[in-house]
Known about the structure:
Elements lengths: L1 E6 L2 E4 L4 E9 L4 E9 L6 E7 L5 E2 L7 E6 L4 E6 L8 E9 L5 E3 L3 E6 L1
Amino acid sequence: QVQLVESGGGLVQAGGSLRLSCAASGSIFSINSMAWYRQTPGKQRELVARIVTGGTPDYADSVKGRWTISRDNAKNTVYLQMNSLKPDDTAVYYCNLRTTRYSIVYWGQGTQVTVSS
């Protein structure tokens, strides 16, 4: 079993920055990818940024140029540096991990990000 613990959410003014962290622990043998998703009430969860092991990060168009996803493989931790935040970025942000073997997906509990105008 794998546990994902997110931190770093909060309230920030438009134009500000936040850094989300997600630490994975447990029976981690091989990670295929780690990613961040977000969800607002009444909408589907959407992919924000993903980093595949050995690959280059990819981003949703809405955050390209503003945000950066990075990973510390030694710590099994993924980060999301969010700059130039907008009120539309307000959502619950979820960490996601996909294993290499069997492609099992794990989710964090979510962390709220609120951007005030």
